[in-house]
Write a structure and sequence with these properties.
The chain is an alpha/beta fold and about 230 residues long. It has 5 helices and 13 strands. The strands form 3 sheets. It has a 7-stranded mixed β-sheet. It has a 4-stranded mixed β-sheet with strand order 8-9-10-13, with helices on one face.
Length: about 230
């Protein structure tokens, strides 16, 4: 079975609903559990790392008019172009991400510290050459979004972890980037978000990432290697 379903999705699974946004998984049966989100900013609704599916526009309309699409991982071009073109908006990409721009046909706007008037501050994270993403945190409602490095999909977690660090990042987890954020909720690019006791789950994942590396390697090492190769397509 492939980690990521590449065909069109006939449906989607809503996740992570809160006052200012909602998430969805367009292919609920895939191992990679790619998650997309729509979050309200001061300027409208932002679609973040989105995958398309029938009915997504109705879901977005529940929160208002789409003002932009944001891509926060070099490997998350996903269906950003289709959604942006349908809504007549641009795709916002951090200035340090080049790979993803080559895969976008919609108009692109580069961003540095935030995207639009979303209220999110973004922070560059490049753990290895070829891997770049942006952590996004909004202080006003303590919402943290992590595209790739942490996730809740089975590929990421080990034992009783509620959220886990990607295997290759476990030896050097991004503690200095994330431990000061004090999130009320954590949204991720792979899996359902953490909407309760999020700070505790994050602290546990980062503080014990290195110690749990052998267990993670044993349980999901092969699956994560396969996922990494499939993400290059």
């Amino acid at each position: 079975m492939s980690t990521y379903a590449r065909g069109e999705s006939p449906t989607f699974q809503p996740i992570d609903r809160f006052e200012a946004g909602v998430g969805w998984i367009a292919h609920p049966d895939e191992d990679g559990r790619r998650a997309s989100h729509a979050i309200c900013g001061n300027d409208g609704v932002w679609a973040i790392d989105p995958l398309d599916a029938p009915g997504i526009d109705d879901l977005l309309a529940e929160f208002g008019e789409v003002t932009g699409v944001a891509i926060l991982s070099a490997y998350h071009s996903r269906d950003a172009s289709a959604i942006a073109e349908r809504h007549g908006v641009s795709v916002h990409v951090p200035q340090w991400m080049d790979r993803v721009v080559e895969r976008i046909t919609a108009p692109v706007e580069r961003c540095t510290w935030s995207f639009g008037d979303s209220g999110f501050a973004i922070q560059r994270f490049v753990p290895f050459p070829g891997w770049s993403e942006a952590f996004a945190y909004r202080e006003s409602d303590q919402t943290l979004y992590i595209p790739e490095t942490l996730g809740t999909a089975p590929l990421y977690t080990v034992g009783a972890e509620r959220i886990g660090v990607y295997l290759l990042c476990r030896p050097f987890p991004p503690q200095s980037y994330l431990l000061g954020t004090n999130p009320e909720r954590i949204l991720v690019g792979h899996g359902n978000g953490i909407l309760e006791n999020a700070e505790t789950a994050l602290t546990d994942a980062l503080s014990n990432a290195r110690r749990r590396f052998p267990a993670a390697l044993l349980t999901s090492g092969r699956a994560q290697l396969r996922a990494a190769f499939e993400a290059l397509d």
